[in-house]
Amino acid sequence: MTAARFSPFELLLLQSRDQADTAALLLLAWVLTQQGPVGESERAHLTALTGAFRHGHELAPVLEVAASQDLGAIQLAAEVLQKELHGETSRAFLRLAVTLATEEAEPTLANHHVLRFLADLLGVAPAEFAALYASQAGRPLREPGDPSRHAYWQRREKGARERRRKPPPGKGDEPQDETQEAIRKRQRDERAEARRQARAARAQARHEQHKAKEQARARQRAEREAERRHKQARREAERERQRAEREAARQRRQAHRERRRESHDERRQRSRPGGDGTHHAHARATAPDPRIRSALTVLGLEPGASRGEIRKAYRRLAQAHHPDRFHREGEAIVASASRRFQRIRKAYDFLMKVS
C-alpha cells in the first residue's frame, strides 16, 4: 500500500512512537484552535503542556490538521484515545484540555461543546467532569450560551462595549502589573502540575498494564501446572488400574493351578492301592482352605508360611502401599492405594487369626 492512500494524520499515526500520544496531541490542538488563531505563544504553551508525550514527531503538522478541522482525522484520534486511555490517564488528559481552554479566558462556545464531547468520549460522567473542570480552572463549569437566543448576543455586545471603554494601561498600573505577573506565575505552576500529573498518570497506567500482564502470565502458568498434574494423575490411575488387573489375573491363574493340582492329587490318591473313599475324604479335609490361599497370595506368600513370615510380608507391603505415600498424586491414585491397602490388611488379619 502506497503512502498516497493515507491521509496526513494517518501517516502521523503510522510513524508515531506512541499512537495514543499522537491522538491526544491532535485533540488538544483541536481545543486550542477553537480559542482563536494559534500564535507562537500558544504553540509554546501546547508544547510545554505535552512535553511528556512520546509521539516523536513535530507539532506543526498536527496543528495544521487541527486548524483544517479535518473531521475524519478528529474522529480517528477520538477512536484511538477511547481505546487507549482509561481511569486516571483519561482524567489527566481532560485536565490538560481544560487548561488549554480556560487559561486565558472563559472557553469559547465551541470549546464548551468540545470539552463535553471529550469527557463523554472517555466515559467521564457530567457531574464528575464539572468537578474536574472546577478544580482545574478555579471556577465552576457554566452552561454554554445559545446563539439562537437574543440574550446571547446582548451579553456579547455588552462585553465588547466594556472592553472598549477600559482605559489603556498607564504609569499607575504597577499593582495591575503585579497581579498579571501573579496570574502568569499561577498559570505556569498549573501547567507544570498538569505535566506532572500527566507523567504520573501515564507511569501508573504502564505499571497497571505490566501488573495485569504478570497476573495473566501467572494464571497461565498455574493453569499449565494444574493440567500437567491432572494428566499425571490420570496416567498414575491408569497404571494402578493395569497393575490391579494384572494382579487379579495372576491370582486367577494361581487359583486355577491350585485347583488343577488338587484334582490331580485326588485322582492319584484314588488310583493308589487302598485309595478308598475314607482316604479321599481325609485328603479333602486336609487340603488348604481357598481363603487361606487367597490371603497368602495377596501377601505374596506360599502355603505353609509361618506367622513371622506373614508379619514381615505385611509390614513390607503396608509400607509400600499406604495411602499417605500418594497424597500428592491426586484423588484417583489415593483411592486406588486405599483399596490395595485394605486388601493387604484384611489378608493379614485373616491369616493371623487362622494360623
From TrEMBL:
Query: Ranges for the J domain?
Result: 294-355
Keyword set for this entry?
Answer: Chaperone
Q: List the Pfam families.
A: DnaJ
Q: Which SMART domains match?
A: DnaJ (SM00271)
Extract the coiled-coil ranges from the record: none
Q: Which domain of life is it from?
A: Bacteria
Which CDD domains does the annotation name? DnaJ (cd06257)
Matching PROSITE patterns: DNAJ_2
Basic and acidic residues bias: where? Answer: 140-160, 181-196, 205-250
Q: Is tRNA processing there in the keyword field?
A: no
Region named Disordered: 138-291
Q: This protein is called what?
A: Molecular chaperone DnaJ
Q: What is the lineage of its organism?
A: Bacteria, Pseudomonadati, Pseudomonadota, Gammaproteobacteria, Oceanospirillales
